[in-house]
Amino acid sequence: MNGGAGSGTAGLRIGVDIGGTFTDLVAIGADGAIRTHKTASTPGDYSLGIETGLRALLGAEVVDEVLHATTIGSNAILEGKGARTALVTSRGFRDVLEIRDLRMPRLYDMHWTKPPALVERRLRLEVGGRMRPDGSESEALDQADIAAAVRLIAAEGVASVAVCLLHSYANPAHEQAVAAALRAALPGVAVTASHALLPEIKEYPRTSTTVVNAYLQPVVRAYLTALEARLRALGIGAGLQLMQSNGGLASAQHAGAFPAHIVESGPAAGVVGAAVLAARLGEPRVITFDMGGTTAKAGLVEHGEVLRAEAMEVGAGVMAGARLLVGAGYMLKLPAVDLAEVGAGGGSICRLDAAGAPKVGPHSAGADPGPACYGRGGGEPTITDCNLVLGYLDPAGLAGGALALDAGAARAAVARRLAGPLGLTLEQAAHGMLQLASATMMRAIRAVSVERGRDVRGCALLAFGGNGPLFAAGIAAALGIGRVVVPPMPGLFSAFGLLLADTEHHATRSLRMRLDAPDAGALAAAVDGLVAAGRAHLAQDGFAPARQVLMLSAMARYVGQSSELTVRLEGSDAAAILAGLAEAFGAEHLRSYGFRAPSEEPVELMGLSLIARGVAARPRLPAAIPPAAARVPARRDAWFADIGWVATPVCDRAALAAGPRAGPLIVQEYDATCLVPPGAAAALDSFGNIVLSLTPG
Amino acid sequence: MSAPDPITAELFRNSIVALGDEMALTIYRAAYSGVLKNIMDYSTAICDARGRLVAQGLSLPGHLCSIPVALQSCLRHFGADIHPGDVLTMNDPYDGGMHLPDIFVFRPVFAEGAILAWAATICHHTDVGGRVPGSNASDSTEIYAEGLRIPPLKLHERGVPNATLLRMIDRNVRLPGRVMGDLRAQLAACEIAARGIDELVARHGAAGVRALMDETMDHSERLARHCLAELPDGEATFTDWIDDDQIDADVPIKLVCTVRKQGTQMVMDWTGSSPQVKGAINNTWSYTAAASFTAAKSVMSINMANNDGVFRCIEVIAPPGTVTNGVLPAACAARGLTGFRCADAAFGALAMLYPQLVFAASEGGNTGITIGGYDAARRPFIYVDFLSGAWGGRPWADGLDGNTSMFANMASFSVEVIEAENPLEVLDYAFVPDSGGPGLHRGGMAQQRSWRMLAEEGILQVRSDRHTHLPYGLQGGGPGTPSQNTLNPGPAEEKLRAKLTMQLRAGEVFRHRLPGAGGWGCPLDRELHRVARDLRDGLVSLAGAARDYGVVAAGDPPVIDETATLALRARLRAERPPGPAVAWRPLHEKEPQTPPIGAPHPRPDSSE
Hints:
The structure holds two protein chains of two kinds.
Chain A: H1 3-6, E1 12-18, E2 22-28, E3 34-40, H2 46-57, E4 63-69, H3 72-78, E5 85-90, H4 96-99, E6 124-127, E7 130-131, E8 137-139, H5 143-155, E9 160-164, H6 173-185, E10 190-193, H7 194-197, H8 203-233, E11 240-243, E12 249-251, H9 252-257, H10 265-281, E13 285-291, E14 296-302, E15 305-306, E16 308-309, E17 312-314, E18 330-332, E19 336-337, E20 340-342, E21 348-352, E22 358-364, H11 383-389, H12 407-422, H13 426-448, E23 460-464, H14 468-479, E24 483-486, H15 493-498, E25 503-514, H16 520-540, E26 548-558, E27 565-569, H17 574-593, E28 603-614, E29 635-640, E30 644-651, E31 661-662, E32 665-668, E33 673-676, E34 681-684, E35 690-693
Parallel strand pairs in A: 1-4, 4-11, 5-6, 5-9, 9-10, 13-23, 23-24, 30-32
Antiparallel strand pairs in A: 1-2, 2-3, 7-8, 11-12, 13-14, 14-15, 14-20, 16-19, 17-18, 21-22, 24-35, 25-28, 26-27, 26-28, 29-30, 31-34, 32-33, 34-35
Chain B: H1 6-30, H2 34-38, E1 42-48, E2 53-56, H3 66-78, E3 87-90, E4 102-111, E5 114-124, E6 153-157, E7 160-161, H4 163-172, H5 176-230, E8 234-242, E9 253-262, E10 265-269, H6 285-298, H7 308-311, E11 314-317, H8 336-353, E12 367-374, E13 380-387, H9 415-421, E14 424-431, E15 447-453, E16 457-463, E17 473-474, E18 484-487, E19 494-496, E20 499-505, E21 509-513, H10 528-536, H11 542-549, E22 553-554, E23 559-560, H12 562-575, E24 582-583
Parallel strand pairs in B: 10-11
Antiparallel strand pairs in B: 1-2, 1-5, 3-4, 3-6, 4-5, 6-7, 8-9, 9-10, 12-13, 12-16, 14-15, 15-21, 16-20, 17-24, 18-19, 18-21, 22-23
């Protein structure tokens, strides 16, 4: 049904990434030729902007695939514009959704306010009937309660229903019966049953995830239907695929049924692109660094696989360095590309606190008024202003001159608000702010590396986003990283990453078993169930068995611990898994936390997870992406610490083809600027990446 | 070294605060016990050579100033006898500790042959021995019954683990695997900190790090003084009450907090509080101070990094021998309750001084529930749970429903996990209608949770409060509802005391209701759309709307009759005296009941 991912015809493949301001399109032909287009996003109906972009990009070519990342899910949650949703849950537990896990993200703050529950209390309906943790029934389902729920849902004009009953991960029979009754009595109302989305123990994360899915389902379905209609009108019959938060592609049909999987689709696409590129480059460990206008995000790629988190919060905003403080958003217990995000971007405002100490972000000047140098009335200095003051950005303007910059305004803002009060020179102040922004971003990088037991010094840094290449060299040097890779089209890299992704289905299952009392039969049954479901999904997507790759992992812990570690399993033979798991878990524990318990400490399996991946018939990554030429000045004065002002050469990416060049150097492109500081060197690799070599300092 | 430049100083502050958080994250991830993790009942910090707090990881407000007190006690004990590779530990409340389950682990970081800094951790351990599982009984009367008391000792000596001490601990706790696992997590966090400090020394030199640590503390002090300068000067006293200590039943315990704010200094003085009690709820000074700091920080306009600089601006006076600063042999295992009530009293005093900045009383802190025994296979189980979660009405908004207390950023336990791990069935976990104190801004709703015993029998212990002394309302708002413990809810139910230890037999159901939080402002002024919303949500009943808010409504969903409401509100305004500044009793009670001995007078001794 989705001929694109599985088949291997020779038309265009198109990646479409919708952001708040711009819709980015990148098309690649069978010959590897790339075309790009950037158009204004169209809030209200984002599919309109896509159509506009496609019309500008396309001629008469056949389109094989449209691969799409969208913020429609997270926007619906942030703006409270999801469907009118009801929840059917076990008797006595309708407030689980609102009580959450009690935790708050802020301390000593009497102004803290919880995000409102996505289902109002009146629409949280209870039914009698109970399962036990072992899956046996302790109380039969109360049919009268179901009938009452149906009546109220019909009367209240509800568009979508989440069903989450206690212990449905162990036995979904009650939940299935409730869902069937709702579907039969309420045609046209969407129904999400928790066991179908997340068959895992812990009622709050499961309820919250199921509710988010239900809340989004009608909205995302309507959007996808509209988009598919526009594609058909353009003569594009190819299957539409959506990027999921976990970094895999899914069919529009799957995404429409399980939209909770696509809420962080855009940021995931860039990391997936980085993973494919890292594998091509033979880099075993890559830290991704994506810096835009308001935030910066870091991720980790190991041996070509992105590092994933088991849960995320949507709508939480940016919580710098605060992974301990949860509760700001809506809990989604679904695998997601593990991204640490901090409030540092080009638009981040630089201020002094009440005691005169300098601070960067998290407030952003946004696009309007924007940085002082935009000349739109923004009087506060931002990171972009500091970059301009130091000569790193071209005063002739961003985006090839489309947006002129007022260097005088930037200097005035930095002088008045920062340099003067701090008693520093203009350059020291601007440079200091960039250092502070870098420090904040390094926290994000440490969160996905050091805090997970990975030594950053062995990693390469892959920098993208409009501002990533400006900061990458400085950050890498400070972290002791020797190599920085700036891929082609750094400003459009998320759209490009879409072209490199594979179809993936992620599934988890609770299975509790002490490894000193193993039950190979139960394990085999659970593994077989997950594998069969994964293969069936891929077959439905058009992947023959030879192109199905299954990756099984175990969630395990020492008996008595209250959180699990994920351990990758080789093969799917239950006996072999049981034989090797305790040792593999101990090794992972040592790596992540720096110690492992004595071997007599029993290990407990808590669950399994499976990634079922459909591998495309032909390589997704072209052999090379020839750099585009750009018009740039020959040199510009730029300021570097310990040196001062230097007449710094400026070139475009294509010029690096002539051979490596030593810093200081500024590589200026249409969508980004790459700073090569003194002591670093830049070269172009055979693919078209800029590779910076640094002497760690 | 000259004064650090502002950029370097800010970079260092970021690094050292991040390091404290990294330590906290290490414990969070590697800890064994659910208590540690779900409740985040642990803290991490970096201190300077003198034991002053430089940076604290984000975790439990209740531990705010515990680390420097304990560390400085260790420094007094060991003096110069501290060497590279040493790790110190202690838990003795009467030698700088908090209560016995809180075990400290300190590791010195040396540079240029001298101690430069300390990596510090404190974790609440699942069990430290003593007469009851969990070591948290509220009815012990001496510390000697509460478990293993560890004076300042070396856990490692020059890199070698102290096998004697470790064996002593192993033999004296009920779940040694878990305690040892959590100690390992503490050591791992110290290791992370030591590595991080070494990196800072490589960058700044030992003298540089010393100067930058000083500057980090000075910076917080400047911010705290800036915030204090913004607040008007003044003095106010507020008294709140603990129902009883479980030993001397129905004898209320008085907590008196006087706030004196002058210029850029604040004093929080607990003089006048009850003498220390027999029951196990006596605070250490450090715990009373933590409650004081938490309240004081909440009225500051800037959330500065917690360190010695903040402590310099707030003086906490807690007279020895009172319940706010117990002396040997006072029992203190369950002093969590007293900390929460101290926070309520401190917030109350601040509310008298700054009525527009402070909320009404929250639910009064968590209720501790322990059910232990043996399952069908004779395997022991210990289930420990803490319930909390309602904020008082705020001058600008309703109190929060279902949100952790300000004094302890706690998480709730999953019902499904409770049932999977214990022979218990949980019957509900829900808001209790009409429980939030009525007000212009309603207090947060009480929650209830009920358990059915599935094993043959077990021991149930409950430590709850706010049974006779309700969470106060402010500025005309009413109090929240009291806590309730009920055996076998239904026609033949039995009301239980707030604090209890009893047998629970197979099939019996125990239900706990938390208190509701206090309301803020006159409930007759509450906007109708807010009452309508609460009616629709079933948080306020039709009867409750009429009684508490003067709102007349009918139907399902309820629709408000605005004409009848105007009339009822006018009548109630005429009939009822205006709500007091501090309300301890429901506003609709016409004749005050005879207060229990020692209970607050209708006009509590609060002064503006």
